[in-house]
Amino acid sequence: MRFRPAALTALFSLIVPAALVGTALPVAAVPVATTPVATDGPGDGTPWIVTLGDSYISGEAGRWAGSSNDDYRRADALGRHAYHDNPSGTDEVIARCHRASSAEAHIGGGVDGLNLACSGATTATSTGRYFKPGIDFYDGSAGQGQALMLQEAAATRNVRMVVVSIGGNDFEFASVVQSCVVNFLTSPSWWKNYCHDDSSVAANFTAANVAAVRSRVAGALGNVATAMSDAGYSTDEWTLVVQTYPSPVPSGSGFRYSESGYTRQSTGGCGLWNRDADWANATALPTINGALLGAASDVGLPNVRTLDMTHAFDGKRLCENGVGLYEEVGLPGWQSPGAVDRTEWVNQIRTVTTIGNDPYYAQESLHPSYWGQLAMRNCLRQVWNGGEPRSGSCTVGNVGAARLTALGEPSMVLGPLDQG
C-alpha cells in the first residue's frame, strides 16, 4: 500500500456507513433494465426492486475484487466505468455516489433494479462539496432527496420491494474508523492508544445519541412509506426491507498480521488495535444494527422485512486469517480459480499516500468489494423469494468455503433471522 508513517495527517475521511469451482467469470454490468412504459405503475408491469441508503448498498468499492499491493489490475473487476450510472455509462448521475454496476439492486431474473443510494448519505440530505441525497423529500437546485426520487420512480414502475440501508453515517462511523487508524499508527504496541475510549468516539454511542439516530432512521423509513403511498401504493403491494451492516474486520484474534510495527496497515490496510477491533464487533456494530432494527419496529408498518448482514462476510473480512492479498495467496488475479474463496471481500483502508497514481478512492475504504457486493446481491435475491419477500440472516454458503453460482456470485445462505 506504500504507506508512509510520516503522512498521518493525510488520512482522508472515509465514507461509510470480501473455493471457487472453475474460473471466476466477470459478471455483466448493470443488467439491462426495462424502460418503464405508460401502463406500468403500482401493481402493473415488470417488478422492480429499488435500493436506498448509503455506501454499503450503493456499491462503494464494487470495482475491486480483492486486493493487491503489487498491481491494482489484479483486482480490477469492473474498470474505470464501475460507478458510471448514467444512461450512456460514461459518468455518474450524482458525483461520488458510487453506484457500482455490481451493487445488489440488480438481481435480474425478470426483476429490474433501480439503485438510488449514495455513498456518504445520512438520513437527511446534505449539500456541500458533493451533494448527498438523504432519505427525504428535499428538492433543490443541487438535486432531490432519495424519498422524492423513489416517489417519482414508483409512479411509473411496478416497485415491489424497497431495500434501505442507512444510519452508519449518522453514527459518524467514518470518523470513528479514522480515529482508530490514527491511534494505531501514532502509538507503540507497548503503550497502545485505543480509539474506543476516545471521547469523540464514545459520544456517538451514548444512549442519547443512539436514541436520536434510531429516531432519524425511523423517520427515513416513514418517508419511504409516504413516498410509496403518494405514488399510489397500498402496503400490500410492496415490501420494505431494512438491511443491517456486515462486520468488515475480524475480532482481534482473527487478524493475520501482528499488532507490532506498521505491517497491519502498511501491508494489510487494516490498522486497528486488537481491542478496538473487538469493540467494533462486540459493541459498535451491534449498537448501529440494533438502532436500525429498532427503527424498523418503530415505523409500525405491516410490510417490513429484515435482511441481517452482520455475519455475511465472516471468514472473508479485511485482514482475516484464511484469506489474503493476491500475492499472499499465490493467485495472479481476480479471474483465477479460487479467487472468491481465498481473497478478501472488504476493501483496504487507504490514505492519500497509499493511492498515488493508482485509481483508488479513499472513500472506498472498508467497504464491500466486488465479491462482497455480489454476495449481498445473492442474499437479496433470496429475500425477494420469487416475489414473496422474507426476512433472514445471510452467511457464506458451503460451510464458509465460498463458491460461485452460475451467475458468478458467491453462494450464500439465508437462514433464520438472528442478530446474535
TrEMBL record:
- Has keyword Signal? yes
Signal peptide limits: 1-29
Give UniProt keywords alphabetically: Signal
Q: What superkingdom does the record give?
A: Bacteria
SUPFAM superfamilies, alphabetically? SGNH hydrolase
Q: Which InterPro entries match?
A: SEST-like (IPR037460), SGNH_hydro_sf (IPR036514)
Indicate what this protein is called per its UniProt record.
GDSL-like lipase/acylhydrolase family protein
| Organism of provenance | Promicromonospora vindobonensis
Lineage of producing organism: Bacteria, Bacillati, Actinomycetota, Actinomycetes, Micrococcales
